[in-house]
Specification:
Number of domains: 2
Number of helices: 15
Number of strands: 11
Structural class: alpha/beta
Oligomer: single chain
Length: about 350
C-alpha cells in the first residue's frame, strides 16, 4: 500500500515574489516534499542574480521579471546554461502564470500594490491562493473576496496571525462571527524593536534599529512596518475581510515572545490559540498541505525553555499607526487604500533618506 502522502498527484506551484523571504521559505518547504510539489513559475522584480540561481535549482517552466531589461539579462544567462525556462516580463505575465490552467497553487508574496492584479487573476481562475500580500485585502478587500467566491478559489492566509486564527476558527467560513459562536479574534503583536522605547527615543531611531526585529526574519518593508505597528494595523484590516469580523471584534494584544500567534475567543468563554516557534515555514506548510499537515522543517516548541508568556495592551500614543488603521477601517470606502498608499510612500522616503 502506498504511503498516504506519496499517493497524491504532484501539485504545480507559482511563486510570486520568489526571491523575497516568503518566496524562499516556500521553496524550502517545497524542496522537502518533491513528490508533492513542482515549481511552475517564479517571479521577481529585478533581482536577476537570485532568480537565476532559483531557476537553475528548481527549473520552473516560466520565470517572470517585472522589468523588461532584467528579463533580457536573465533570459540570456539561462540560455547560456541550456535552461528550458521561458523568461517573460511585466504585470500581464504575472497574471498569466497566476491563472494558468496547469497551476494548482499560487503563493502571492509580491510586496506592495504590485501584487494585487496577479492575486485577483488567481482568484478569478479558482486557484488555491496562499495570500502573503497584505495590500490585496487592504486596498481591495471587498473586490478580492468577491472574486474568490465567484471564481471558486480557496483562500489560505499566510500571515502568521491570520493563519493562526484560520486554524482555530470553526469550519463554517463566510458567516458572521456570532453565528459561529465566536466573540472576537485577538491578533498578537511582538511590539517590535521599539516596544519599550520612550517618545523621546522614538524621535532618533535609525534604519538599522528599525530593521532589527527581535523575533522574526522578514523582508525590509514588513520589518519597518512591524517596528511602527503599521503592519499590525494592516492586519486588523485584513482580519475584517478574511473572517467577516467587525472592527469591534478585532483586538490587538502585544505578546513579546511571539509564541502565541493569535487567538479566537468564543461566546462560552473558551479562548483557542495557535502556538509555535516564530518561523514562517509553519503557515506556509499549512497552506501548501491544507487540509493535511506537512513537515515544515521548523523545530518543536519547547514550552519549558520558553518558561513564561507576557501580554499587554498596545500603546496607541507611541504607535499611532495602529490607531490610524482602526480609523481607516471604521471609515470604510477608500480610506484603507489611502492609508496603505501613505504608508508605502513613507517607507520609500525612509529607505532613501
Amino acid at each position: 500500500m502506498l504511503d498516504k502522502l506519496t499517493a497524491h498527484e504532484s501539485q504545480s506551484v507559482t511563486i510570486l515574489g520568489a526571491t523575497g523571504t516568503i518566496g524562499l521559505q516556500t521553496l524550502d518547504v517545497i524542496s522537502q516534499h518533491p513528490e508533492r510539489f513542482s515549481v511552475f513559475a517564479l517571479s521577481a522584480n529585478n533581482n536577476v542574480k537570485d532568480l537565476f540561481a532559483l531557476c537553475e535549482k528548481f527549473a520552473p517552466k516560466y520565470a517572470i521579471m517585472l522589468q523588461q531589461a532584467a528579463a533580457l539579462v536573465l533570459s540570456a544567462q539561462l540560455k547560456a546554461i541550456g535552461s528550458a525556462t521561458v523568461v517573460l516580463h511585466g504585470e500581464a505575465a504575472l497574471c498569466e502564470v497566476a491563472a494558468h490552467e496547469q497551476v494548482d497553487i499560487v503563493m502571492a508574496a509580491i510586496v506592495g500594490a504590485a501584487g494585487l492584479h496577479p492575486a485577483m487573476a488567481a482568484a478569478k481562475a479558482g486557484k488555491r491562493i496562499l495570500l502573503a500580500n497584505k495590500e490585496t485585502l487592504v486596498m481591495a478587500g471587498n473586490l478580492f473576496m468577491q472574486a474568490v467566491i465567484n471564481g471558486g478559489a480557496t483562500l489560505l492566509p499566510i500571515d502568521s496571525e491570520h493563519n493562526a486564527i484560520f486554524q482555530v476558527m470553526p469550519p463554517q467560513r463566510g458567516k458572521h462571527l456570532s453565528d459561529m459562536g465566536v466573540k472576537r479574534v485577538l491578533l498578537t503583536a511582538s511590539g517590535g524593536p521599539f516596544r519599550n522605547a520612550s517618545l523621546q527615543e522614538l524621535k532618533a531611531v535609525t534604519r538599522a534599529q528599525a530593521l532589527n526585529h527581535p523575533n522574526w526574519v522578514m523582508g525590509p518593508k514588513i520589518t519597518v512596518d512591524s517596528a511602527t505597528l503599521m503592519n499590525k494595523g494592516l492586519e486588523v484590516i485584513e482580519a475584517h475581510w478574511l473572517f467577516n469580523a467587525a472592527p469591534s471584534q478585532i483586538d490587538v494584544v502585544v505578546h513579546p515572545q511571539s509564541v502565541i500567534h493569535s487567538m479566537v475567543e468564543y461566546i462560552d468563554g473558551s479562548v483557542l490559540a495557535q502556538l509555535g516557534n516564530p518561523d514562517m515555514r509553519t503557515p506556509i506548510a499549512y497552506g501548501l498541505g491544507y487540509p493535511e499537515r506537512l513537515s515544515s522543517g521548523v523545530s518543536s516548541l519547547d514550552l519549558i525553555t520558553t518558561a513564561h508568556l507576557d501580554f499587554c495592551l498596545p500603546d496607541m500614543v507611541r504607535f499611532p499607526c495602529l490607531r490610524l488603521a482602526y480609523e481607516a477601517l471604521n471609515a470604510g470606502g477608500t480610506a484603507p487604500a489611502i492609508l496603505n498608499a501613505a504608508n508605502a510612500g513613507s517607507n520609500i522616503e525612509f529607505f532613501h533618506s
